[in-house]
Specification:
Elements: E1 13-16, E2 22-27, E3 32-37, E4 40-45, H1 47-52, H2 58-74, H3 76-88, H4 98-125, H5 127-134, H6 142-169
Antiparallel strand pairs: 1-2, 2-3, 3-4
The protein binds zinc ion.
Length: 170
């Protein structure tokens, strides 16, 4: 039988964001992460990380995943600003059913948050980031796919919401 690497439950890492929010981050084995702030836990499947870290050594995968999760916390204020920007255009888009506005707005918001979390990861990893992906085996086009999808969703969705304003302004 194949020996499986059973890793005992990881110890949470305690962090404090630059805006003072205390949080705990646990990176599990591939399938899930848990981020908690003030007793509120947000366990979530690591979908983005799982796909994005394919082909990287296990330890590096965990390190980048940890920074990505921390990046979500550290860039949260930016996401709030992005959300406010989208929210302000809400009424200007009354030509579109509310549920479509909601879906497009949320998609743009979440995609933008993924992009800023990964930018944070790139800054923390520095030149290591490019080196790791150059040596990834198997080499998969995960990074271009990620940036095309997240960048596309975030900018297209946001521009679409904002263009409602401009049309009205003329
Ligand atoms: Zn993410």
């Amino acid at each position: 039988m194949k020996k499986t690497n059973v890793v005992p439950e990881e110890q949470p890492t305690r962090v404090r964001t630059w805006y003072g929010l205390p949080a705990e981050i646990v990176i599990g084995e591939d399938l899930w992460h848990r981020v908690s702030t003030g007793g509120l836990a947000y366990p979530h499947p690591g979908l983005v990380n799982q796909h994005l870290r394919q082909g990287l050594p296990r330890q590096e995968r965990k390190r980048l995943t940890y920074w990505h999760e921390l990046g979500h916390l550290e860039t949260f204020p930016l996401t709030i600003l992005h959300g406010l920007l989208i929210w302000r255009t809400w009424r200007e888009r009354q030509d579109t059913p509310w549920y479509l506005r909601l879906i497009i707005g949320l998609l743009a918001l979440m995609a933008g948050w993924e992009a800023t979390a990964e930018l944070y990861t790139m800054v923390r990893a520095g030149p290591d980031y490019a080196r790791l992906y150059r040596h990834a085996r198997p080499k998969l086009p995960m990074l271009p796919l990620f940036w095309a999808a997240m960048g596309g969703l975030a900018s297209a969705g946001t521009l679409w919401m904002l263009s409602g304003r401009r049309e009205r302004g003329v």
